[in-house]
Design a protein that fits this description.
Layout (H helix, E strand, L loop, with lengths): L1 H7 L7 H13 L4 H8 L3 E6 L5 H7 L1 E6 L19 H11 L7 E4 L4 H4 L1 H5 L7 E3 L11 H20 L5 H27 L6 H9 L6 H16 L9 E6 L8 H10 E6 L18 H11 L14 H11 L4 E7 L3 H17 L2 E7 L7 H15 L2
Parallel strand pairs: 1-2, 1-3, 3-4, 5-6, 5-7, 7-8
């Protein structure tokens, strides 16, 4: 832990551009130096598939939670385990594990789609560490949803206690919740800047500041955000005449950084669902009472939304309209990862709701490993100009 602090406090004294560059380099470093450093210090690592995972439980037991957000690498080993019709993120995640780039002591997936539901069965024959499925309630309003999810969390916690040899107390869990509550507060501030002062922070810059938290201990990420956010406000930037948009489609497989940069050059992205699992719980989780039950309750009562979470209280058509209106957006950009059935299906519902509300939108598909952006850049520029200058 001390080595981690020494290395990643290196941004102290740097300007914002230096901090952002450090974050980009870390995100693009497929040797995962922070994770290896954690392991070398005697720590254990749990890799969890998108979208949501109760990282507070891993933190309390002393494990480093690493979000397997997909990686832009060549898939030589993993492609033999999946058909070509399977989304890219599941293959790149398996690739970094098979090639030992990313050392894990536990892998957890979720039933967010047919592919993710079956990932533990694909992983188990290839690794010595446990590969589990964390079942999140399909209907959060069901009478026994809270009891069910609390039981799932306790089973997961028990597995992690066995791996680490540490028995977690309620006070341990409360301490972890406090750390993550601070992180939620800092991420809310980051997104407030995007909504209220979008000229100070592009979508790509906000993303790297947030996404680096998937590779760092959460206290380190808090330290980074506490340092970076004041620097954002000090930027000497002026508002430009740009279209305000919301960007949807990054709930699971992530858009390439270059694509985010291109989108940010054409318009202000004032809200998005990138790495929505890090921001799924939108308020501070209470520390009084039973901490495990509090975490389960917070998941069920969150007002976030994504194509892989189903809440009859919040239809997706209503949520996307609220998403646009609350952020003050003038239009929407909707993407879907290739071969992602939930994302592609949701485009139909989103388009219908936006059409009925008279809100302009642009639809596209992407892949984490894509390297050519000229065509999509032209399409986005044309879309923006069709609203701004016609």
């Amino acid at each position: 832990m001390g080595a981690m602090t020494k290395v990643w406090s290196a941004w102290s004294g740097k300007g914002l551009e230096g901090v952002l560059q450090e974050c980009r380099e870390l995100l693009e470093d497929m040797s995962f130096p922070t994770v290896h450093r954690w392991r070398e210090g005697g720590g254990k690592v749990v890799g969890h598939f998108q979208v949501y995972f109760p990282e507070e439980l891993a933190h309390a037991v002393g494990m480093l939670p690493v979000k397997l957000r997909g990686f832009p690498i060549e898939r030589k080993a993993a492609d033999s385990h999946f058909g070509s019709y399977i989304c890219s993120i599941v293959r790149s995640n398996l690739e970094v594990a098979l090639t030992k780039r990313l050392p894990l002591d536990l892998f957890v997936s979720h039933p967010i789609c047919d592919v993710a539901r079956n990932l533990p069965s694909v992983w188990r024959p290839n690794f010595q560490f446990p590969c589990l499925l964390l079942r999140l309630p399909q209907n959060p309003t069901a009478r026994l949803a809270l009891d069910f999810l609390e039981h799932e969390y306790r089973s997961l916690l028990s597995q992690m206690e066995e791996i680490t040899g540490k028995e977690v107390t309620d006070d341990d869990l409360r301490g972890s919740i406090e750390v993550f509550n601070e992180n939620r507060h800092l991420l809310r501030e980051l997104y407030r800047i995007k909504r209220e002062h979008p000229w100070l922070l592009s979508v790509e810059e906000a993303y790297v500041l947030m996404a680096v938290g998937t590779l760092l201990p959460r206290r380190e990420h808090n330290e980074l955000l506490r340092y970076a956010i004041p620097l954002i406000y000090e930027r000497k930037a002026r508002p430009q005449d740009k279209l305000r948009v919301v960007l949807l489609g990054g709930f699971c497989e992530q858009l390439p950084l270059e694509l985010l940069r291109i989108i940010g050059e054409s318009c202000y992205v004032v809200d998005d669902d990138l790495l929505i699992g890090l921001r799924w719980i939108t308020y501070d989780v209470p520390t009084q009472g039973d901490p495990v039950r509090n975490l389960a309750q917070a998941y069920l009562e969150s007002d976030s939304f994504s194509p892989v979470q189903h809440d009859p209280r919040r239809p997706k058509e209503e949520m996307i309209l609220r998403f646009v209106r609350q952020s003050g957006a003038e239009a929407a950009i909707i993407g879907a990862a290739k071969m992602c059935e939930p994302g592609l299906d949701e485009q139909v519902a989103y388009a219908k709701a936006l059409d009925e509300a008279g809100i302009r939108y642009f639809v596209f598909d992407f892949e984490e490993a894509m390297t050519s952006f000229e065509q999509i850049q032209l399409q986005i520029e044309t879309f923006v100009e069709s609203i701004m200058f016609v």
